[in-house]
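Worked example

This section walks through a single chain of length 234. The input is the sequence exactly as stored; nothing has been trimmed or padded.
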Amino acid sequence: MFHPFSVTETLNIAWLILRKNIATIAVYALLAVILIIGSFFIIDIFIDYNIIIATICGFALLIGVSFIFLGFIKLVFQLIDKEYYDFEFKDIVPKLRMLLSYIILLVIVSTLAVLMENAVKKLEEGFLQNILGILVGIFFEFFFLFYFPICTCFVVDDECGPYESVVQSYRLIKGNFFKYFLLFIIIEAMVFIGSITVIGIVFVVPFVNILLVVAYRKLVYSHLDVDDDITETV
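Given that input, the structure is written out below as tokens.
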């Protein structure tokens, strides 16, 4: 039957997924942290040695972190769907198309943000420059925190390209904007509280990403006159 998007239900399902799969998620998160810290350590060695090598290492780090992040998102999708089938390690490895789409979207939006911020800085100092600077900052921060996670889900779940993922995300959220905005506020509060301690952030980051994947699936089902598989099986 049809299930409308519910913030409370989304929170409950995300918590159940985390609780039932805490060991799997913890192992993945631990390996990811080790790999990322190790990569930062290697880059730190080369950064003063050779700027070209350091730049290459920095780009490699971006690819590596993106790969790990997309792998986690794929893992969450598999954990949601494992009621229907078992999955193997290869099922959580991001495809090249996903990785390219994610990095291209990330680079395009980041570049636009930098260009617009620089354009504002070149304006004559005064009230207009300050207002435009604030508006540009809010717009891109809002996009990264509000729309970008859903774009990522489209990239992983539907293998959408950069532009298509943005369009699909807008259409998906449009009908449930205020409910999703409420979830967004809750997530921001969780991140703020979790960032107070290292243990808190280690717990909050995986849970927030699980929450966003569940929200994506719930939003998709809210637009379709079909059974809400997550609600029925988790």
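What to look for: The radius of gyration is 19 Å.
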